[in-house]
Design brief:
- Helix content is 38%, strand content 15%.
- It has eleven helices and ten strands.
- It has a six-stranded mixed β-sheet with strand order 1-2-10-7-8-9, sandwiched between helices. Strands 5-4-3-6 form a four-stranded parallel β-sheet, sandwiched between helices.
- 4'-deoxy-4'-aminopyridoxal-5'-phosphate binds next to helix 6.
- Belongs to the cysteine synthase/cystathionine beta-synthase family.
């Protein structure tokens, strides 16, 4: 038995029970570990779906150029799909992202353009503006725009949501999920709420993003926005992929708490996950008082830790940001001597 190409390995990722870290959390806590996708992240699902929908709608033809704003994971998914289906890829990203992410994208044939982080989205230098300009200038190209492209949430409505329902035999009571474009949390929520409207959907956001305040008040408050270190989630605008009516709660976590928790997930559960997985579980920890012993909670772990080895998995990097207290740093150094 064989698969026809790498794209056929996307999805059907394992749901793995957390045992040590969540001992004092009521209920069964499960992680949907989406680093098992071929591009090492959940974004493979929506990348393939966006390409399939664009092909069906005639927006791009083989030999054309895929253009996208991506922090890496969406780019990886699109790049894999492009290799198999015969497209070129140009990605715009920000200087805040891990260098490893750019190198990985280049390894699978993509061109990467790095843009400044701390500019307004409508500034001509922003990675959104550069992607839009390239799409206008390059013939037979298409800007996928994962933020407003509803094939993003559709991928999770069609795959991630049903997998969670089947893997828990319909027993899931809560889903906890970091929120960026909103595609993952909204698509999962739309599917699961159709199956059982009582399922609670908790989105996890970062301080410095305006999503939580928008969810609570409906106000787009730019005073909420400040630079943050966490990667992959939080936004300074509200993408069209959100349907806030299927989300029950937004919880904000700090850069430090997310990073520390990601390190604990690796050490205590053996799951070497990315930064946002730490933030996701930290969000759950902040809400554990709301859970009961029969609850079945699914936390979405978006990507793999290998992309963060020079960041959260580097003690010096953690120390420099005050994320690792001096006492525990001395313990690490002493243990090594
Ligand atoms: N975590 C990581 C590592 C991601 O790459 C993303 C996607 N930007 C998210 C979380 C948030 O997912 P979504 O964009 O579907 O809201």
């Amino acid at each position: 038995m064989w698969l026809n190409n790498i794209l056929e390995t996307i999805g059907n990722t394992p749901l793995i029970k957390l045992n040590k870290l969540t001992q004092d959390v009521p209920g069964t806590i499960l992680a949907k570990v989406d680093y098992f996708n071929p591009g090492n992240s959940i974004k493979d699902r929506m990348a393939l779906k966006m390409l399939e929908v664009a092909e069906q709608e005639g927006k791009i033809k083989p030999g054309g150029t895929i253009i996208e704003c991506t922090s890496g994971n969406t780019g990886m998914g699109l790049a894999l799909a492009a290799v198999v289906k015969g497209y070129k890829c140009i990605f715009t990203t920000t200087d805040k992202q891990s260098k490893e992410k750019f190198d990985i994208l280049k390894a699978v044939g993509a061109e990467v353009i790095v843009c400044p982080t701390n500019v307004e989205p409508d500034d001509p230098q922003s990675y959104y503006s550069v992607a839009r300009r390239l799409a206008r200038e390059i013939p037979n190209s298409y800007h996928f725009n994962q933020y407003d492209n509803l094939a993003n949430r559709l991928a999770h409505y069609e795959t991630t949501g049903p997998e969670i329902w089947e893997q828990t035999e319909g027993k899931v009571t809560h889903v906890v999920c970091t929120a960026g474009t909103g595609g993952t949390v909204t698509g999962i929520a739309q599917f699961l709420k159709e199956k059982n409207p009582h399922i609670q959907i908790w989105a996890v956001d970062v301080y410095g993003s305006l999503l939580t305040k928008y969810f609570r008040t409906g106000e787009i408050d730019m005073k909420e926005v400040h630079p943050y270190i966490s990667e992959g989630f939080g936004e300074d605008f509200v993408p069209l992929n959100y349907d806030m009516s299927v989300i029950d709660h937004f919880e904000q976590v700090t850069d430090k708490d997310g990073a520390v928790m990601a390190r604990r997930i690796a050490k205590e559960e053996g799951l070497f996950c990315g930064y946002s997985a730490g933030s996701c579980l930290q969000g759950l920890m902040q809400l554990k008082h709301k859970l009961k012993k029969d609850d079945v909670v699914v936390c979405i772990f978006h990507d793999h830790g290998s992309r963060y080895v020079a960041k959260i998995y580097n003690d010096q990097w953690m120390m420099e940001r005050g994320f690792l207290d001096v006492k525990s740093f001395k313990d690490i150094v002493n243990a090594r001597q």
